[in-house]
Amino acid sequence: MNVEIAGVDAPMKVVHEKAKNLFNVLEEADGYYKKQDYKDDAFVKGQELHERLKTAFDAYFIAYDTMFSEFEVVQDELFAFDVEKFKSSGQLIKYNLMMGLHTSEAVLDVIGGLDGPELKNIDMKAFDTKVAEFRLFYDALEKLAQDETQFKKEYGTSVGAKHSLKSFITTGEQFIREIRNLKERVEEGDFKYSIVHPSIPDNGSPLKLSKTYSKMVNEYNRIQ
Description:
- This protein is mainly alpha-helical.
- The chain has eight helices and no strands.
- It starts with 8 loop residues before the first helix and ends with a helix.
């Protein structure tokens, strides 16, 4: 793209360079193994390729992380801009949608990588605070979705947007239930998941909560 993003363009060029280098090494390794050239050199080049691949992967991920830390700053600025734009212009469905999704992500952030018995280490006060923030915007959105005048102001007569908004709200209900289920697990010390977990995430597990959040993201993107 030709659009310049201050602070991001320079590190992104490094990501591009490292990605091209990684691709080239992968292509070389792919050819080496497809042609079974390792039978000719007793894997001598295979060992060399292994080291080059490790180096290329490390370089790519370091470059990507460096770039993404700058990109997050831009994302935060854009988020603040859009939120204020929606609120000040009276687009309250879009405002509460955006804030609802944002605060639901914050709920997951409190859990972090904790799972199983480690869930006892959740900062429950912080967790409850983030859940309350999510409910503030979600409850407002639920009421606004019933206001036909408000909906038409923001989305016109879009049937698709109305359907996705309804789906977002329904998935939000599931998110709330999973929050309750997770808290019950913590309170009861019940961290035994079903035998099909994680292929079918168990109720009250961080994975189930995360997958429900992902469904909310998908519905949010469809509304836009």
